[in-house]
Write a structure and sequence with these properties.
The chain is mostly helical and 559 residues long. The protein is built from 21 helices and no strands. Helix 8 runs antiparallel to helix 17 and helix 9 packs across helix 17.
Length: 559
């Protein structure tokens, strides 16, 4: 009993101990709930997307859990805290992407797709579109998975009171291993439980924290903006563009391109598309997106308020001291609320936000890992290896092994890249999704002449352009905030490749479809000419035989 009281006292006095104990409790409950939910049903479709029997509210909360990532909670809050307007518009773009998703909800649900390969095969059946879908899925999910794991390790170590790279790597391995375990044991059903809990906890914690910030300024948003502007990196320009996308010769154009990348890339993430297609009918799919939009909208408003609160209460100079990004802004502002809430309530809020971040990592990383594994198991193994000899039990085993392989590889890459800029990898994943998946989906659903050639040109052209230009952009090298700060091989002057890659991918899809139609007409013409020649030859031979028979009968008649 004395030992128990000692532990509770220590937890009350040390916020890190309280965070650690709460984290362990939440993770054990989440793991138990996900594994228990995944025990019901073990078919491959249920492992990939669930049983298609979830209500609109539950599916909407799970979709919101996919959207509310550490990039939104940490990176966007940090951008709002340091530069202001560009961060607010980034949060708005995340919300706008759900508006685009609402337009695609009906055709996505009617497609009955389990993976990106199923969507690509709607207009272009065969093995080549399946392979292209698997390549596109891995090109999007791999950097996004690594970025989320890196952020998870960094934030976890910071919340526990450590800053060494070795501790961050250990936390990355811990969280990554937990995600892989959940994914292997439970699949989509178990991850749905985590996503619903993550959305609910994150929404409650972010709203409570934003109300606490507003209370410190007596509900006066103008006073909050004035204080945030005074302590930002751009005093007097806090509500003007140019704070984030200012590395190229055309900052306003880069700013617009960044918003397009967020809108198109966010809606075309494979794990987001599979979540919408998992609805039981079109009405449920649309209602799910509406519920998710409401949740994400409230979280985005809270992100903007907390970002301004971080600038006003902590200051951009303190936030950026000793580091190249402002990902600690959310927890710094949570730790600065003692005078407004009291120490006990402030620590409770700090713990709630920490648990929200942990749960969002589990939700997003788990969904991303499962999407990559589904592409390997269904789009490659099932349709290329098994083909007609379909074995659901063996496919399910391959899917679980794929979750393990993808997870272990993601953890390894995250450990190796720990300490570098995770924002570059997240931006790369979003740019590839916007440049490959978006053109194919829009052409598939809304252009009847789209075909196999156009699909392949758009996918591979989009991957090459977006990936290549991102590697040679200032986000990859040439600055202190780049992924490789000690190198400089950036010759592409724009901060995001979508300025070139998205229009080029749409153009390639259009041009490839025209070429494909011409080839099809040419082949039809050749087949028709061959058929005509064969028919003509057959008629000629038949006429000759008939003539020979007639000629052979005439002498006998004359005789």
């Amino acid at each position: 009993m004395n030992h128990s009281n000692t532990f509770l006292a220590a937890a009350a006095d040390d916020p890190y101990a309280l965070v650690l104990s709460s984290f362990m409790l939440f993770m054990v409950l989440a793991l138990f709930g996900s594994v228990f939910a995944g025990l019901r049903g073990d078919s491959p479709p249920e492992f990939y997307i669930g049983d298609r029997q979830r209500s609109a509210l539950k599916n909407g909360l799970a979709l919101a859990g996919c959207y509310v990532s550490t990039s939104l909670l940490l990176s966007v809050t940090g951008v709002v805290a340091t530069v202001g307007f560009d961060g607010i518009t980034a949060a708005t773009s995340v919300l706008l992407s759900l508006g685009v998703l609402l337009l695609l909800a009906r055709p996505l649900q009617l497609s009955g797709s389990l993976t990106l390969g199923d969507l690509f095969s709607l207009r272009a059946p065969g093995t080549a579109p399946r392979v292209a879908a698997a390549v596109a899925t891995l090109a999007v999910t791999a950097p996004y998975l690594v970025a989320q794991l890196m952020a998870a390790g960094n934030v976890t170590a910071t919340l526990l009171g450590f800053s060494a790279i070795g501790v961050q790597q250990m936390c990355t391995v811990l969280i990554g291993g937990l995600v892989v375990t959940c994914g292997m044991l439970s699949g989509a059903k178990g991850l749905t439980v985590i996503q619903v809990i993550a959305a609910a906890v994150t929404l409650a914690a972010m709203l409570f924290a934003s109300l606490a910030v507003l209370r410190l300024f007596h509900g006066d948003v103008g006073a909050l903006l004035t204080a945030a502007d005074a302590h930002s990196t751009r005093p007097g320009q806090y509500l003007s563009t140019g704070g984030l996308f200012n590395v190229g010769p055309t900052p306003r154009l880069d700013f617009a391109a960044g918003q397009v990348m967020t809108v198109l890339g966010g809606v075309c993430m494979p794990h987001v598309l599979s979540r919408v297609s998992a609805a039981k009918d079109t009405a449920t799919a649309r209602r799910s997106v509406r519920y998710a939009t409401g949740v994400v909208a409230l979280v985005c408003v809270a992100v903007a308020i907390l970002g301004m609160g971080a600038s006003a209460r902590v200051g951009a100079d303190t936030i950026l001291s000793g580091q190249s990004n402002a990902d600690d802004s959310l927890m710094l502002v949570a730790g600065s609320l003692d005078d407004g809430l009291g120490s006990g309530t402030s620590r409770l809020l700090f713990t709630a936000l920490a648990c929200a971040i942990f749960l969002s990592v589990l939700a997003v990383v788990g969904a991303t890992t499962l999407a990559a594994a589904a592409a390997l198991a269904r789009d490659t193994y099932h349709h290329l290896v098994q083909r007609r000899q379909s074995d659901p039990t063996r496919e399910l085993m391959v899917a679980r092994v794929a979750v393990l392989l993808v997870g272990v590889l993601g953890i390894l890459l995250a450990v190796l890249a720990q300490g570098r800029s995770a924002a570059f990898l997240a931006q790369l994943a979003t740019a590839v999704a916007a440049s490959t998946v978006a053109p194919v989906l829009l052409y598939t659903f809304y252009w009847d002449r789209f075909n196999r050639t156009g699909l392949l040109w758009a996918v591979y052209g989009g991957i090459i352009l977006s990936g290549g230009l991102a590697v040679f952009s200032p986000s990859a090298s040439g600055s202190s905030q780049a992924f490789l700060p000690n190198s400089d091989f950036a010759w592409f002057d724009h901060s995001t490749p979508v300025l070139v890659s998205v229009p080029a991918a749409f153009l390639l899809g259009w041009a490839g479809s025209l070429v494909g139609h011409r080839r099809a007409h040419r082949h039809q013409a050749v087949d028709a000419s061959v058929t005509s020649a064969v028919l003509l030859a057959g008629r000629t031979a038949a006429t000759a035989v008939a003539a020979g028979r007639t000629a052979g009968q005439q002498p006998e008649q004359s005789f």
